Amino acid sequence: MPSRVRPDRKREVPSDFDRVANRYDLLTSKNPGYLDHLRLSAGRLGLPRPGGGLRLLDLCCGTGLSTRALTDAYPDAEVVGLDASPGMVAEARAKDWPERVSFVVGDAMDPATAGVAGPFDGVLMAYGIRNVPDPDRCLGTVLGLLRPGAPACFHEYSVADSAQARAVWTAVAWLIIIPGGLVTSRHTRLYRYLWRSVLEWDGVRAFERRLTAAGFAGVRTEEVGGWQRGIVHSFLARRPAPQAAS
Fold this sequence. Notes:
Blueprint: H1 13-28, H2 34-43, E1 55-59, H3 65-73, E2 78-83, H4 86-93, E3 101-105, E4 122-126, H5 135-145, E5 151-157, H6 163-185, H7 189-200, H8 204-213, E6 217-223, E7 232-238
Parallel strand pairs: 1-2, 1-4, 2-3, 4-5
Antiparallel strand pairs: 5-7, 6-7
């Protein structure tokens, strides 16, 4: 087993992303299914398409790959992307977007400090909840940003429940991801953290319980395909809708 991620390490993750931001897309482009899986999770929000009148939040948007998944799924929706890494947000902003898409540098645990406020008709958080220093606080924030009845999708790694998934993840991390990070960005610190953080993160059932404890309803999990089957999941949930008066 790797040494555990120290408690304050996650506060350093945004600066790690800053160091690799200009080469990040190059590495992810080598991952078969990466973009398709983001689109799959965006579509699993189950919102009306093409999304006219919808307001969506891409939390921990990175370089905008997950934002693109949302705009592909809901081309007429307003989308706000938020990330704590200024370097990653700069890369996202440099891409070609319609006027209804905007990006903000801010803390996923407290988006209000960056001027981001609800309500939103849906939230996508891809590869983000595992990286925040206080995931339970972040889940409470996401819940509060949603309209009553609105969905959230947490697109995330989860390998704790499967020895096979842990073994595959470790092999891919050390044979492909970490060497790829060295080649593309001359840094491996972020990618070594990625390997450890995934191994330490919740199993599927544990994260479902965490979502339920945070107040979400309709919690369920769907798999992705390819080599990431059993490794990456779409965790789906909703803010409870008000009960109709009897």
